[in-house]
Each structure stands twice: as C-alpha cells, then as structure tokens.
Amino acid sequence: MTSAPPSGPGAFPKPSLAGSQLRRLGIDTGAEHVVYLRRDSPICRSEGFGPHSRLELRAGNRCMLAALNIVHAELLGVDEVGLSESAWQWLRPQADERVMLAHPASVDSLADVRAKIYGRSLDATQLHDVVRDIVLHRYSHIELAAFITACGGDHLGLNEITALTAAMVDTGTRLHWPQAVVVDKHCIGGLAGNRTTPIVVAIAAAMGLLMPKTSSRAITSPAGTADTMAMLAPVELDEPTMRRTVETCGGCIVWGGSMNMAPADDILIRVERALDIDSMGQLVASVLSKKIAAGSTHVVIDIPSGPTAKVRDPAQAQLLARLLRQVADAFGLQLHVLISDGSQPVGRGIGPALEAHDVLAVLRNAPEAPADLRQHALAVAAAVLELGAAAAPGKGLAMASQCLASGEAWARFQMICAAQGGLRTPGVAGFRQPVTAPHAGRVAAIDNRRISRVAKLAGAPSAPLAGLTLDVHLGDAVAAGQPLFTLHAQSPGELAYAMEYVSRHPCIIGVEEPR
Amino acid sequence: MTSAPPSGPGAFPKPSLAGSQLRRLGIDTGAEHVVYLRRDSPICRSEGFGPHSRLELRAGNRCMLAALNIVHAELLGVDEVGLSESAWQWLRPQADERVMLAHPASVDSLADVRAKIYGRSLDATQLHDVVRDIVLHRYSHIELAAFITACGGDHLGLNEITALTAAMVDTGTRLHWPQAVVVDKHCIGGLAGNRTTPIVVAIAAAMGLLMPKTSSRAITSPAGTADTMAMLAPVELDEPTMRRTVETCGGCIVWGGSMNMAPADDILIRVERALDIDSMGQLVASVLSKKIAAGSTHVVIDIPSGPTAKVRDPAQAQLLARLLRQVADAFGLQLHVLISDGSQPVGRGIGPALEAHDVLAVLRNAPEAPADLRQHALAVAAAVLELGAAAAPGKGLAMASQCLASGEAWARFQMICAAQGGLRTPGVAGFRQPVTAPHAGRVAAIDNRRISRVAKLAGAPSAPLAGLTLDVHLGDAVAAGQPLFTLHAQSPGELAYAMEYVSRHPCIIGVEEPR
What we know:
homodimer; Barwin-like endoglucanases; Transferase, Pyrimidine Nucleoside Phosphorylase, Chain A, domain 3; Pyrimidine Nucleoside Phosphorylase, Chain A, domain 2; six-stranded mixed sheet; four-stranded antiparallel sheet; 19 strands; globular
C-alpha cells in the first residue's frame, strides 16, 4: 500500500504477460477471429475479460482484434492463449512467439456507422475509414451486420455507393495492365448453371482482346466459376504465373481469392448472405469494386431476370442497370448491361464437374452440347467483342459464332489451360439417380433456388463431381415416369439425403397436367 | 443405382445419426449457442455443413438453433457433437442422450426484419413473432444486430414501441400481486454509484407500500443493484422465498435474472451494448417491459442528465420522459418521471461492496454517510410515496426523511435482509491507492464513463470488494497532492492495471487551475 501519486505511464507495472504462449486450437469459427482463454488465467483476472469481450492481440508488429471465448475445461493451459483457425492465419505467429493482449482501442469509424443508422449520409473519408477498419478485421460480426443493415433498404445514395466502391478498391490490391482495353464480364448470380465465363474468355482472347478473368469460389451456390474451372485446369495461380498466362494467351480464368482485390467485399458478402439482405447499393459496389481492382476497362454485366433468380423482374433489372452505369461512369469504366432470361437454369449440369462437362461440350462443338448455354455464352461474348471494339457494332454475334464453330475458341481454351498448368478431364460421380415426372404434362416452372439447394445437398461444391443434370427445359412435354433431372453424388449417403429433400419438395420442377 | 422415382418421404433413408453423442466442450461463447463438429464427421459430409452454418438440434422434445464451428484437431470424436456452455444449458441433455441435427427450418419472422430495414412499420403480430423467435434463440447474433439496427435511429413509431413492449412482456413470465398498488422505481443508467434502490425500498415498505423489487446484475457497469445488494443479503431467491419476503416485509431487493421476465430484453440488451447503439424506442420497451412483467402498477423513473451520463441533456431527457409516459399509458401503468442532475456520480463508492457501504451508512444515519446519495434517495422515495398515495402530494419528502431519520427505514431493511437469508457485512479490499490532484485548483469535471472504466479495471464487479471511492465533488477546492479518488483492488495486479489506465488518462477528474 502506497500513497504516492502516479508519476507517469511507466510508474506502474503492467500485469506480466510472460507465459502467454499461443496455441492453435484447431477450431474453425468461420471468418470471425476468436481467442480462447481460461477464466482463471492471469490475463482474464487482471483485465476483467469475459465471454464476448473484444481483445487486441499483438505479436511482433502484427495486430488483430478478436472475440473472446472463455474456456472452462482443460482445453488450454492457464497461461496459454488459444487461437481459432482464422485468427491463427491472420496473426501467423512464429514458433514460440509470445503475444500481448489488451483492451482494444476504440474503433472510431463505428461512430460513422452509428451516424448512418441515424440516417445521415457518409462522405468519402468516412466510408474509407469504415472500409479500412473492416479490412483490418476491426469490426465484429455484429458490427458488420449493423453497417450492412444501416446501408440496406437502399439507404445508400449514388455518391455513397461511388465512395464505397472507391474505398473497397483502395483498401486492396489493384492490378494494372499495359493494354488500353481490358475486358471483363460479370453475371449477377442466382441462376443455376449458366457457366458462360470459360467460353467467353476463350472467344475474347482468340479474337485478340485482353481478358484476365478472376473468379470466385461458391459461397452459397453449388459452384462458383473458379470451382468449375478448377475441374479443367489449375486456378490457384500466383500473380506472375497469371500474368504469364495472360501475356501468352490473352486471357486466363483463375481464382481471385488469393489476390486481395477488394478484400472488404469478401468480408461483407459473407455477412450479407447470412442475413439474406440484398441491397442494390452494396451489390453495385461489390461488383464494380472487383472489376476496377482487376484492372478492367470494359465490362459486360449480365442480369438474368426471373421469378426465382436474384433479380425478380425486368423493372428491377433496369433500375440495377442504371445504378451500375452511373457508378461505373464515375470511374471511367465502360459498361454494357445485358438483361437476359432468368426463368430457368442455363445448361444441363449444376455442380463443378457437371458444369465443366457442359463447357467442354460447347467448346468442342459436341452434338450433345446444351444449346441454351451455347447461345447465352455467344450473346455475352458478342457483347464483349463489340464493347472491346474487336467487332463492329452488330457484328459481335457472327464473329463469336464463327470463332466457336471453327474450333478457334477451343484451341485458345486449351492453350490457356496449358499455361495455367495443364488441361484436366473432369470425372463422373459414382452414384446417380433420376427424378421422374409424377404424371404426364408440360414443364411449367423450374425453381432455381431449390435446384441449387438439391445440388448442394448432393455434395456440390465440396464433392466436386456431385450435383445434378437437368433432363428437361421449360415448356417440354413429358410422359409420366420420364426423368426431369438426375442427381449425382459421390457417396450413397449424400444421394439419399438429396433424394429425401426432393421427396419433400415435389415442385422443384413443376409439371402442369394437360387439360 | 436405381431408376425408381421417389415414392414418398419414407422411401429414402436419412443418413444415420447413430453415434451423435453429445459432449460438453467447456467453451463459453457468451449468449450465442455454438455446436462443434469435426469436418470429417458423417453429419458434416452428408449435410454439407461448414463453419457458420446454422444447425437445428433436437434432443427429446427440446429444440435449439446454433452456429456451427468446425473442429479440425482431436478435440472431438468423429461421431461426437460438441456443445458450448450456453448451448449445453439450453438443451440440458440427459446422460447418454443422443441428438438429431438438421438444416434449420427458415425463421419466418426474419422477413419482418427485412421489411423493417426497408422502412416499413411492423404491426403487433409481426413484432410478437420477431420477439418470440428471439426468445427461442432462433436469431443469430448478426440477425439480432440487424433487428436492433433497423429499429435504431428512432425508426420505431409509438405503436411499434408499444407493441414491442407488449411482445417482450408476453414472451416471458409475468408476476401478479394481490395488492392494487405495486410500486417500483428505475434509473436510466450511466451514472456511477447512485445506488438508491435499497434505501427507497426500505422507506416505501416501511411506509406501507408494496415494493417487490427485481434488479439486474452489471452488464457493462462496475456494479448492478443486484451485485451491490448481494453484498448485504442473498439475492438469488426462488419465487416462493421472494413472495414470502414481500408478504412479510412489504418489499424485497432480489436478482430478477432467474425469473424469466421479459427475457427478450436480456438477449437484445447484450447486443445493443456491444454495438453501443442507444435507441430511445428500444430503451423505453426495455424499461417498461421489465416493470410490467414484474407486476408493477406505479413506477418512478429517474433520468439523470449530464454530459457523461446516458442521457446527455435535459431536452433529450424530456423527449424520453414523454415517450415513456405515452407507452406506459397504453398499459395503464402510472408513471412519474424525475429528471435529476447527472453531472457527477452519486455517493462515494463505485463497485459492489463500496456502494453497499454507502447504502448502509445512509440507512444507519452514520455521520460519514454521503449527503448526495441520501438526498437523491430521499427524492426518489418521496416520489414513490406520493405516486403510491402513501403520502399526500408535496408531503413525500418529509415522510421519507422522517422514516430514514427515525431508524424505521433501517429496521425495515434489516427485516428484508433477514427474510432474504440474513444481513451480511461487506468486506474491504486489501489493496488501495489514492489518486491525487496534480496541482491546486477546483474540481471542474468528473467523467462518469471513465470512473466506471477504472472501477472495472480494478476488478469490479467480479472482484466484489474492488472499485473506487470518490474523495471530492464538483466544485470542491483541492490542494496539490490531495486525494481525488482512491482505488480498491483485491490483487496487486489489478491495482497496477487500473493505475496504469489512470496514468494514461489524467482527466478522469478534471482540476481547473485557479486564474
């Protein structure tokens, strides 16, 4: 006991942190960083930490915020600090490295989020600060949810969407290309199948355009473009290999996840999907930030519109198209928007390998190639060729069709695959079962969302050969017992599980009885 | 491989769940339920579960939604299902009970939350559905954050606040009392100290009113009323013991946490505090739902207003008072609002035991009793006596003062403590250190928030003797080196840690140099 006043920051010892040895606990909590401590650990006692305290961890010059889980049992030593998988990968501690734990400094940009909740507009500086703190993982998941909700319901104005897009580009890597024209395409998702990208890249590159395509893996869908492409060639390329591929072939189709382009988008999108909140402003910022960061100058956006697609009707598609154009203008990005038919899946296969088979069939001009996928890929390719000035206005479709029919596109695709590490042949799942029409009639509706759900229950995308193939299209006449679609699975359990769902949801493909 | 069509829900076996043995992992994740599975477990493989999937668990007739964490390492057997502490307590599995896991049915009320995000008003049925699902723990933390954010920024209208209040009452236990008049009091927090409740209950009960007080433990403050009262008597009473206490003594001061009154509030408030979002509508619903659920008919609400209190200025206090009255009217609740001085803490001690010492000193008419606490408690008691018609208008203060001065209040308090299980004497912390004025001058400001922070760093409330005592009030003249406040801690480490914070924040108590 002493009565001396504090004489400065150094006068009182901090509680000793010696012995705060890091331990990888092997718990994958998703994207949120979690740190584990024992309740009776000196650090919990001295700092008054409890479950869901936020902590700041420092190791060397690396810093991280994390949520605290308190461990009661003997999972940890009393002096140990456990890390979740994402926390371990973020902090990347060296062997025997020790960690400092403290109450985190307040995250000042949260005041901007609160201002937004109260209906105020945020300026470019405020949005930049918010996005920077998000990229630094300084926001908890509930804080991310608050930001997304505050911006949801179309509460973002045009200036805010533009500033959010810029902030998302500026807080990540931005690729630069020597060419003046760099083309790209993007499809506003929600439609099963529809795997046009490899075909479009092959045609655009064959016709002399530069199309360095980075794609994502599936988050909630049965396959992302990167998942499908991974069935055909390596997609996890480092930047030098990707650049070499683009230089030699004029294009590539790689996974963008390792390139840190618009990383805020990857963080926000997971929470948006978990909340199932579709905000047009955030969608525009998400799509355009990735394109700008990839160095694209001319982008075709495909918006399928249909009752079970992401965009439900043409009016909503027009609104979205206008907003995309307005924001693209602010960045000097040339945009062409295609509003396409989103009433049913495009192509036959749903799932990484099954979609890859469709892509190969179209590229090879195989007789069994799905005509709808071929036609839609040609329409997108035509728009890309015209926007990139490889084809004169109105001449894109003829050029694309000729490129495909002549085998040039297939040759270019093989060249790209070789440069990425070698063309692969996708396999076929061992367990298959058709789902048949309960009665004769005409195919009246195909539920995109449930089709995707079934493909996922069958194992896609983590079981890459799994998914389903469609045996009919809208309007087809079918006989009772005729296959509507066929499930593909890599294990009997997954097949059974998907079938159980199908049996409970008879209207995945609706067959209208003849009158 | 078969080509038979599905013949009904029973035709395809569900993947076997035999072997899904529950295991308590001893991880406290806070309020959010978490379930742990190995990535290679049959259930993860067959259902396609991944980190942050939401799962439905069923054991017997109990059902629970939980977030999934994937365990890589050898923390679990491949057939085991690990549960976090809150999940274990919610599901309360019997020995060797097995659990069924499945994709959760969709939570329909989330559509109402989305509607609210889009600016639509919710009606009573919608708000009831939302609150019911929250109480059933069907909302994830990010979904709670979305609901709170959508209602924040004063986006709730009067009808919505009333409906939210009703829903919060209806989804929990509601106490009923035979008496026509049941008084209560509540203080809108943010002010350190200010522990008037035990004094007010003693006076009201001694003067013949019924005051069955249920209080909370601290969530983010250094002490809740239940924490302080626990220093003086047992507070974790079952309902029969509480009712016996109220019948024999006319009042009680117990912890309300075990009584399941307005349980949605407890869930929402944790997320609100973590987000640091103050929404007036949610505050009103939170306060009034607890009072209505407790069976109160006449309630005095104390709103301290000051620059570092929860309510920053008198205009805001008036707005809040009006909203409280309007919603109370809808429930036939008689309300009296006191707007008090929130410019500095009330009383000397901050922390459970230190506040209990203040309460005892006032009740015993000790010469060292803090005059401000005595005066404020009498003002609240006077309002309670008048609102409950124990005192004529304008006569409450004289009656309360007489009751306290005569020892009647102290006698009643001892009687209440005896009925609750016996009066206790709070101890004194072993490690104390004064913080002194850096120079002579006048005390110009006391930062409530930092005072609370320091008390918590010293160990309050989990170290119940810890906290601080104030040695000065606003306006006091002090000499250089004169104590401003004194830290109390139960360990040297905690004392050092609080002092370290004090040394970095010299303006916790601002001393203005004489001109």
